Every structure is written in structure tokens, then in C-alpha cells.
């Protein structure tokens, strides 16, 4: 059987979460900072640790079958790869930002202005769509300081909390693209049996992350009201308690409805609500 290769970021914002995801998929590998390739002992897979900029091309060229990288990097490198799975971490957004005292008020005010960025391709396409002609200044890093240095009128950079912008006297002005980490594969790799197996494992980990296992006690008289609030993977389990007239309900609920549901459940008569993390959900 051919050993697959997956490229992940060697160090940086996506490294830790990428390693964690693969480990949660039950893959055993050493995560030495010094090694560039790490074999997985219990799956036909090798992990390549790379600069994130190189990952899309490695995957496009088939040097790696799979990769985990930010959507922003994929779009910027304009590669042809298969988008296999959004991973829900590394969320950020590419924004145009201006100085706090800037005279730029609307997008059209960017006409003829200079914008510093490390994302000239994405920014170029965005401006073209808006029919704005601006001078894109491509620099390789520390974009936030360029307006202060008089190098540009605006910047286009990745933002998550906005703290870096603020501390450099900048404010967000326009959203260019939203991004998160994505599992990509070489074209056609999605048909590979081992890729499918790995994707299933990844999906079961992601699904589990989105849901909680909930156990609660309720008086039989209130059971139907409580059940009406619980979707469950298939349907909730209802087990008798030692105390006459009471049952325990076991189910899973989506994290996003969590707090809403918990208060509704309490109102409906649920007691002793226990919420537990789920490791994997295999459908
Ligand atoms: P490398 O050394 O691998 O080239 P890098 O310095 O280019 O790393 P990082 O800063 O580690 O990249 O960011 C990696 C990815 O994390 C980004 O491409 C983006 O998808 C995501 N990300 C999430 N939040 C942010 C943020 N606030 N700023 C920058 N990137 C972010
Ligand atoms: Mg990089």
C-alpha cells in the first residue's frame, strides 16, 4: 500500500491545531521540532512539516497527497487542488485597514491610493471586482507599520482580534475574504481509499467537537416536554432510575444550541444535568 503524505505547518498559528487534529484521529507520530518528516506508526501516512506558503504547491504537484493550510494561502497561490474539508480552526479574515485619521471613507476612495499587502493576488482580484485601480505594494511582512512609515495609504492583512491593527493606529475598513484552515488534497486524491478513511476520521472528530453528550434526570410526567427539546443523533435514550417515577435521558446536542437548550431543559423539569465532551462520533 502506498504511504500517503500530509503536509502541515512546521511552526506558526496552524501547527498546534493541525497536530492535535491528527492525534485525535488516532494517528501515532513523534512531533519533534527538529524533524521535517515524521512517519505515522499505525497508518500508512507520513507527516511533512513545512512553511505554510509551500503547502499548496506541494499538494498541487502531488509531492504531498494532502495538506492543512489557511484558505488565504490557497487562494493567494492560485493552485489547483481539491478542497476536502473545512477544519474550523485558524479562523481569520483578510481586511483592508486604514489609519485612524485617514480621509478614506468609501471603497471608491481607494482609487489611486497605495495599499501594502502580502496578498497581492487576492487583493488584486478584489479591487478588480470593485473596479478600483490602486497601487498594490507587495511586501513580505510587518505590513501594519507601512502606513506609519509613509509607505502606503492603507494595508490589506489578516486580522483575527484586531489587536495588532489597533496597536499600530489602524482600523478595519473593508472585508476582503474570510479564511479558516482547510484540508486540501491533490486532484483526484479524494478517490484514494486511505484518503477517504482519514477524512472519515477527521469528520468524526470535527462532529464530536461540535456536540456535547448530555445526561439529565426528569420526572416521567415531564418527560415528553424534555424530549421535545432534544434532537439526539437518532433519538435520546431513556433509562429508568432507581427512584420510582424518574428517568435518566442521555443524548447529544450541538454545542451552538447548548446554553439555550440547557435553560429550556431546566424550565421543562430537567434536573442534575451533566454535560460531557465527546471524543468521536462515527455515523
Ligand atoms: P510560515 O512560517 O509557515 O510561513 P506564517 O508566518 O506565514 O508561517 P502564521 O502567522 O503562522 O503564518 O499564520 C498561518 C495561518 O494562520 C495564516 O495563513 C492564516 O490562515 C491563519 N491565521 C489565523 N489567524 C491569523 C491572524 N490573526 N494573523 C495571521 N494569520 C492568521
Ligand atoms: Mg507563511
From TrEMBL:
Subcellular compartments: Cytoplasm
One Pfam short name: HisG_C
Regulation: Feedback inhibited by histidine.
Described purpose of this protein according to its UniProt entry: Catalyzes the condensation of ATP and 5-phosphoribose 1-diphosphate to form N'-(5'-phosphoribosyl)-ATP (PR-ATP). Has a crucial role in the pathway because the rate of histidine biosynthesis seems to be controlled primarily by regulation of HisG enzymatic activity.
Signal peptide (residue range): none
EC main group: transferase
Keyword annotations from UniProtKB, A to Z: Amino-acid biosynthesis, ATP-binding, Cytoplasm, Glycosyltransferase, Histidine biosynthesis, Magnesium, Metal-binding, Nucleotide-binding, Transferase
UniProt KW Metal-binding keyword: yes
GO molecular function: ATP phosphoribosyltransferase activity
Annotated protein name in UniProt: ATP phosphoribosyltransferase
InterPro entries named among the record's database cross-references: ATP-PRT_HisG_long (IPR020621), ATP_PRibTrfase_cat (IPR013820), ATP_PRibTrfase_CS (IPR018198), ATP_PRibTrfase_HisG (IPR001348), HisG_C (IPR013115), N-reg_PII-like_a/b (IPR011322), N-reg_PII/ATP_PRibTrfase_C (IPR015867)
The protein's Enzyme Commission number: 2.4.2.17
Superkingdom of origin: Bacteria
Stored SUPFAM superfamilies: GlnB-like, Periplasmic binding protein-like II
Amino acid at each position: 500500500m502506498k504511504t500517503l503524505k500530509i503536509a502541515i505547518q512546521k511552526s506558526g498559528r496552524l501547527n498546534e491545531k493541525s497536530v492535535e487534529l491528527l492525534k485525535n484521529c488516532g494517528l501515532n507520530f513523534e512531533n519533534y521540532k527538529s524533524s521535517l518528516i515524521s512517519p505515522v506508526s499505525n497508518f500508512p501516512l507520513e507527516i511533512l512539516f513545512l512553511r505554510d506558503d509551500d503547502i499548496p504547491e506541494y499538494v498541487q504537484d502531488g509531492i504531498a497527497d494532502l495538506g492543512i493550510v489557511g484558505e488565504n494561502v490557497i487562494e493567494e497561490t492560485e493552485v489547483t487542488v481539491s478542497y476536502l474539508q473545512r477544519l474550523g480552526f485558524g479562523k481569520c479574515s483578510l481586511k483592508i485597514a486604514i489609519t485612524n485619521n485617514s480621509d478614506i471613507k468609501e471603497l471608491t476612495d481607494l482609487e489611486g491610493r497605495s495599499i501594502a499587502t502580502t496578498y497581492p493576488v487576492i487583493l488584486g482580484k478584489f479591487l478588480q471586482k470593485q473596479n478600483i485601480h490602486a497601487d498594490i505594494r507587495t511586501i513580505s511582512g510587518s505590513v501594519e507599520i507601512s502606513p506609519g512609515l509613509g509607505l502606503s495609504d492603507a494595508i490589506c492583512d489578516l486580522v483575527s482580534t484586531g489587536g495588532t491593527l489597533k496597536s499600530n493606529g489602524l482600523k478595519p475598513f473593508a472585508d476582503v475574504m474570510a479564511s479558516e484552515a482547510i484540508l486540501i488534497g491533490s486532484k483526484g486524491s479524494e478517490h484514494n481509499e486511505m484518503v477517504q478513511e482519514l477524512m472519515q476520521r477527521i469528520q468524526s472528530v470535527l462532529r464530536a467537537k461540535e456536540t456535547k453528550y448530555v445526561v439529565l434526570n426528569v420526572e416521567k410526567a415531564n418527560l415528553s416536554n424534555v424530549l421535545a427539546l432534544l434532537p439526539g443523533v437518532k433519538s435520546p435514550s431513556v433509562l429508568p432510575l432507581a427512584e420510582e417515577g424518574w428517568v435518566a435521558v442521555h443524548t447529544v446536542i450541538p454545542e451552538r444550541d447548548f446554553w439555550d437548550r440547557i435553560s429550556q431543559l431546566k424550565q421543562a423539569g430537567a434536573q442534575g444535568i451533566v454535560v460531557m465532551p465527546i471524543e468521536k462520533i462515527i455515523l
